[in-house]
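Q: A reviewer asked whether we had any structural model of the full assembly, not just the individual parts. We don't, so I'm hoping you can provide one. Inputs are below.
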Amino acid sequence: MGRSVWKGPFVDGYLLKKADKVRAGGRNEIIKIWSRRSTIVPQFIGLTFGVYNGHKFLPVLVNENMVGHKFGEFAPTRSFHGHTAVGGGDKTAKKG
Amino acid sequence: MARIAGVNIPTNKRVIIALRYIYGIGPANAVIICNQAGIPAEKRVNELSDDEILRIREIIDRDYQVEGDLRREIAMNIKRLMDMASYRGLRHRKGLPVRGQRTHTNARTRKGKARPIAGKKIATRK
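A: Here is a predicted structure for the entire assembly that you could use as a starting point for your response.
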């Protein structure tokens, strides 16, 4: 079930402040954020966010298609590189 | 034979049923269309007058997105997800379930027929 419209989109307030600051500053720097749960709102279009995926900050350039989605959708938290080819099933074998 | 919404040629079934042969029209929409066109539920397609067919055609053209247009829109929606590299887009690209279902087992609709894993030992029964 979707979120009630009367509540408006959920955005952590400090993101708006951070976005304003970067906008005012002129330079397009990466805004590091941990708030993967926040909705992307139109004010964020054109800005680059570093979305934390539990390991590092992945740069996400926000475009108008992304409005309405959450930041977390654009920073995958799992890295799957495929299974080891032959004689697989060895869970301890790590691939670089 | 009646031709509604392009290529669809439903048979001598009841209109409510026949309309569902059109991609994009299901049970609910079929009933709504029949009500709007003033067609009784028990009427069959081969009993329809030209006027009635025309009315159905008009309603569908005006209010519904069907067949190719609908397929195109769905494909575009998926493409949008893939292009902006969202999680759902990645799942579509990999042909895995998109809505958080488990993939340890099952998920065969998305993954297709099971492929054997090279080198996996066959479980032996005691």
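A: Points you may want to mention in the reply: Chain B has two domains: 2-64, 69-111. Residues 69-111 of chain B form a domain with the 30s ribosomal protein s13; domain 2 fold (CATH 4.10.910.10).
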